[in-house]
């Protein structure tokens, strides 16, 4: 159940509006169905919408990927640095199939004399 209140935080109000927009586009689906589409536990979404909890560091990027970086604005937090996101994604490369990407990264760094900056890109 969602609490409709003028006392809700900007984030909870924004999240509820995102859900209502999704409902309009998708034929009045349930919060459970919406949360499944977001890839976030239904109970957490309800907690966020009722202003009982704020998303933690693992959930915020998921919300941002699904609903936009505006999530950080609504939480009163700075948006993440896009370069840092790329570096974090690179750091997670550990599958043997990722070797091609590592080889490309090595070549790019070597082509730049071992230095990678926004000016050499």
Care to describe what's here?
There is one protein chain. This protein is mainly α. The protein has 2 domains: 10-74, Orthogonal Bundle (434 Repressor (Amino-terminal Domain)); 82-111, no CATH class. Helix content is 58%, strand content 0%. It contains 7 helices and no strands. The chain has helices spanning 10-26, 31-38, 42-49, 59-67, 70-74, 82-91, 99-111. The mean pLDDT is 84.
Give a brief description.
58% of the residues lie in helices and 0% in strands. The chain has 121 residues and is mainly alpha-helical. The mean pLDDT is 84.
Throw out a few tags for this protein.
single chain, 121 residues, mainly alpha, 434 Repressor (Amino-terminal Domain), 0% strand, elongated
Q: How far do the termini sit from each other?
A: 50 Å
> Low-confidence parts, pLDDT < 50 over ≥5 residues?
none
CATH architectural grouping of the largest domain = Orthogonal Bundle
Q: Which outline best applies?
A: elongated
Would you spell out the secondary-structure blueprint of this structure?
Blueprint: H1 10-26, H2 31-38, H3 42-49, H4 59-67, H5 70-74, H6 82-91, H7 99-111
Helix pairs in contact: 2-3
